[in-house]
Amino acid sequence: MAEQEKEAGLPLKENFSEWYNELLMKGEVMDVRYPVKGLYVWFPFGFNIRRNVYDIIRRLLDKDHQETLFPLLIPENEFMKEAEHIKGFEEEVYWVTHGGTSPLEVKLALRPTSETSIYPMYKLWVRSHVDLPLKLYQIVNTFRYETKHTRPLIRLREITSFKEAHTVHATWEDAAAQVDEAISIYTEFYRKLAVPVLASKRPEWDKFPGADYTIATDALMPDGRTLQVGTAHHLGDNFAKTFDITYEDAEGEQVYAHQTCYGISERSIAALISIHGDDKGLVLPPAVAPVQVVIIPIIFKESGNVLAACGDVMTRLEQAGLRAKMDASDIRPGAKYYKWEMRGVPVRLEIGPRDLKNNAAMLVRRDTGEKIQVSLENIVDELSTLLERIHEDLYQKARTSMYEHVFECSDLGEIREKISKGIAKIFWCGSKECGLKLEDDVGAGILGIPTEQTKDCNGRCLVCDSDASVQVYVARTY
Amino acid sequence: MAEQEKEAGLPLKENFSEWYNELLMKGEVMDVRYPVKGLYVWFPFGFNIRRNVYDIIRRLLDKDHQETLFPLLIPENEFMKEAEHIKGFEEEVYWVTHGGTSPLEVKLALRPTSETSIYPMYKLWVRSHVDLPLKLYQIVNTFRYETKHTRPLIRLREITSFKEAHTVHATWEDAAAQVDEAISIYTEFYRKLAVPVLASKRPEWDKFPGADYTIATDALMPDGRTLQVGTAHHLGDNFAKTFDITYEDAEGEQVYAHQTCYGISERSIAALISIHGDDKGLVLPPAVAPVQVVIIPIIFKESGNVLAACGDVMTRLEQAGLRAKMDASDIRPGAKYYKWEMRGVPVRLEIGPRDLKNNAAMLVRRDTGEKIQVSLENIVDELSTLLERIHEDLYQKARTSMYEHVFECSDLGEIREKISKGIAKIFWCGSKECGLKLEDDVGAGILGIPTEQTKDCNGRCLVCDSDASVQVYVARTY
């Protein structure tokens, strides 16, 4: 793309929505100009971030899950088997009705999620207790006919990068333990993206259609709204009964299996971009940055030694497994800084004639702007250490900010005020009636009961004033 | 799955079609029981092969391409822009007509291939000659409403693993060079799968709809039919004119760009499985085998030392980056051999009490059955060398067999006889009339003109008897 277009600055981050949309284009993450609402195109740079992010979740899951792949198209009769599930999705399913110019005999749904694609096969695959637990996952595109306002990476008609795991267990308790394990994996995953999350058990009316219960992780976005960035569902034996998934137990009896499923999408990337980015553009955690270090030769008259020194450093960094890039292009240094800052490269490494005389280089942190002079000799170690420090600083800063925006509230007025800035934490008796009334009164949603409850927590429900032994999060949500 | 089901043997490979179908199930590559015709499920083991195969093509392309991702759904108006292209695909496109219970305003096609999804964006992305060449690729699911007999990995309604590259160049010549480069990359890719391929320029009537010309690579399957396993298309400026993809050249003029596209699918896996497999099951080239070495402890009475020695070897192999697995399960050795042979593990490593006394282990090659005694001390090096040798032997064996099945033929009767065994190579004047007549007469297709032509090649067209300066391949095709 022509340089002049990209040179225009970003809106300030305090205007979050405009900033976010512009950043996705200028940071070359997503192109929003595809000619269908709710569908977007990954720029190669953005896709490179995606690769790194999904490599992380793959590595975490591969420890005891196996990756696989099921079809996108689900025949109507399978899709319509689970009553609760259909109710949850019927308004947002895309239907394929024609092949070529002929109408299909059986309509095919584009998976909005893959339970009804996978479980007819699980019926065939699960036979005996020795087959359990079965833990599979796939990374696929899924589809929702969203009628709400769509937004790149956040609310999509094609979710391009849905990582969904589906597990089968002998008992309800085993499945419950797997849900906890999933939330623990997701929390670790987000830790590796330097994104702090809050896990909570969703209220009954907000659980996954067909599940016994749902635990979700939320990230706090810069505008004070929360983004659901991971969910884990205990399916009980509900789907097992619908799809006839049984196994022979140790006593030779055929019994229904218990199941879980849990998902992560490209919202993970929306969260990391939004939380870490600033007025100058992307700020990428080193673990997912396509370029971790950009080397800028500072050239005045003669370039020979400086270019050679930069090339040498480049080679050493690559050998050490760092993702380095040298920008020796013919544009002015200011334009280079602008470009690589917009793309969130964690460290800029400058070498000029004076540095070279001192056998040194200048490192500039993207996140803080801090400049650090280092000797060329130790540069690989110094950089590796610095990248780790940057990751840790990004995480701690985001974590501190998140907890500063969790407010204990003791009346409805206070909730209304605080949720304009972040998350309210309140006592609630647990009844659906009080919950829905509260949501209606404050114009926000109950996220759920935190998985880590404060001990001996006692208070009175903010709605009905009866005893309440748990606190819940309330927030405006995406 | 229950052991007894898998224990039944395979049909002989000489009954190729039955053998292939059974092998996909018993070797746990694809499950064919999904309840929609032409859609199949990757078993985790099969998907692991796919990962390794696609890692290879990614590494080859990443040298000077960038990976990206475009939407699956193409609006009818974009899809219908290129007349030749539509003609080629209109009978096999799936159409999404409804979102939820409402009809869509604009019908959406499931991409059968992504030209019409990508090129509206290329119109926006390509501005100046400095943006060129642009070389992107994506690995995606594509859809064809196949009315012919479907077959797992070969003829699918959902192609789950379509790697398609789309490049943009300044000149027709640059694009032509890229087509050659694509064929060279594909040949190298197949070399890494130990699969020999023949490249040829498809006749006019068999080129990609909308292309100037098509060069394809074919593999020879065990039943003598060829499988098209890679295609590269020179699109000229045909799509550039349709989608208005222009760039400003060095003189400041707006001119049309020239384009290519080239694709590979899971047919690559069909080829490697079919060519290398045998009556006992899969025979996987080490580069793509999910398990490269299976360690079988041979235990009679006391297991302590043997198990410890196996564990030690396992650790050393893993540290050396080999994919090793120990099978210390409680089933008889014969059943273990059967299981890992079916799954194509290149080397079985046995250690028993007598081996241990000699500080040795036994290696058994999957491809030849050869047994090799090695000292435990050198086992990592010995195995690494052996895996390379196995790869080379598999390739050479397949290559020799392929060329033994290319027959120079000098009359139609000979063609008819030879194409029941393999590929006929014949003189052809190049006219469409003779070509179609020939195809009709012998009941097979002209693959095309080999990219590597014998020099000073002269003969007479087998149909019209006029001068012919090129030879072409003729074969029964999948």
Describe the structure.
The structure is a homodimer of 478-residue chains. With 478 residues, chain A is α+β, with helices and mostly antiparallel strands. The first copy, chain A, has three domains: 274 residues, BirA Bifunctional Protein, domain 2; 95 residues, Rossmann fold (3-Layer(aba) Sandwich); 70 residues, 2-Layer Sandwich (Translation Initiation Factor IF3), CATH 3.30.110.30. In chain A, 35% of the residues lie in helices and 27% in strands. Chain A has 15 helices and 25 strands. In chain A, the strands form six sheets. Chain A has an eleven-stranded mixed sheet with strand order 3-7-8-14-11-10-9-22-25-21-20. A five-stranded mixed sheet of chain A has the order 16-15-17-18-19, sandwiched between helices. In chain A, helix 3 crosses helix 7. The first copy, chain A, is globular, with a radius of gyration of 25 Å. Chains A and B meet through strand 2, helix 3, strand 3, strand 5 and strand 6 of A and strand 2, helix 3, strand 3, strand 5 and strand 6 of B. Strand 5 of chain A pairs antiparallel with strand 5 of chain B, so a sheet runs across the interface.
